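Quick start: read one record
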Amino acid sequence: MAMQSEDRLRENLRKIEALYAGATTAGEKSAAGAAAERIRGQFEAASKKEEAEEFKFSIADPWSRQLFIALCRRYGIKPFRYSRMNRQTVMVRAPASFVHVTLWPEFNELSRALTAHLREISRKIIREEVHKATGDAEEAAPVARGPLGPALALRPPPQVRCDRQAVLRRKGPLPGL
């Protein structure tokens, strides 16, 4: 079952790539290597026609970021980030037409397919190995209302709360400790 699911994902990824490569015949659509080569050709053609621009992408999901970086490298684009930039930031220099027409739309479709696959696998494993109910937690009303607002089960008592900035500004021992 897992292999069928993985094979299905691989086939979906190939079809998405073929779509952005401009494949027209059934034979072209099944040739992933040829599709990647055509997209590299599109990138080179766009590079000759227009100046490369710098683009900044912020991709929080590590799987999607890894996919985006791999896709850039596949087409000859060198992803980078400047020192002190957040890990989720990916910079590229490429022609704007290639980024807007091919790279970003293809990435979004590939990312959707990969995310759906990972979600399906995660739910299956959690359902089979941890607990069969994998839905969201139930929403509950606040327990009681006091001077500090609703009392929730996991809220720490006010004297235990730690405000990092207040601790850094404070000189001397903390009260109550």
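Strands lie at 52-58, 89-95, 144-146, 149-151.
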